[in-house]
Amino acid sequence: MVNMSPVGxxxxxxxxxxxxxxxxxxxxGDGVACARDLAVPALVIGNLADDACTPxxxxxxxxxxxxxxxxxxxxPGATHYYAGPTSATSWHMPSxx
Length: 97
What we know:
It is a single chain. This protein starts with 14 loop residues before the first helix and ends in a 22-residue tail after the last strand. It has three helices and two strands, in the order ααβαβ. It has helices at residues 15-22, 31-35, 55-64; strands at 42-47, 70-75. It has a two-stranded parallel ribbon. By secondary structure, it is α+β, with helices and mostly antiparallel strands. Strand 1, helix 3 and strand 2 form a beta-alpha-beta unit. It has a domain at 30-82.
């Protein structure tokens, strides 16, 4: 898992950037607010069993994208790290051909 590795998430950062990442009160990033300025094609992938980046948040991000060239794909049963009784290899993107 990314959080358990010696060089994992938030291992090398300033206090300000750490607070922006992990503190609701001090966060300076707002994906939903910034999504309206997105000018490139977007693919949003949501994991329907994710309790870290919830499906409702993923949908808010998708809805906020100000570009009409966007797609959303939701993976039933997938958790944040694709852990659980089914491995990540069992989830497949739909064929576009």
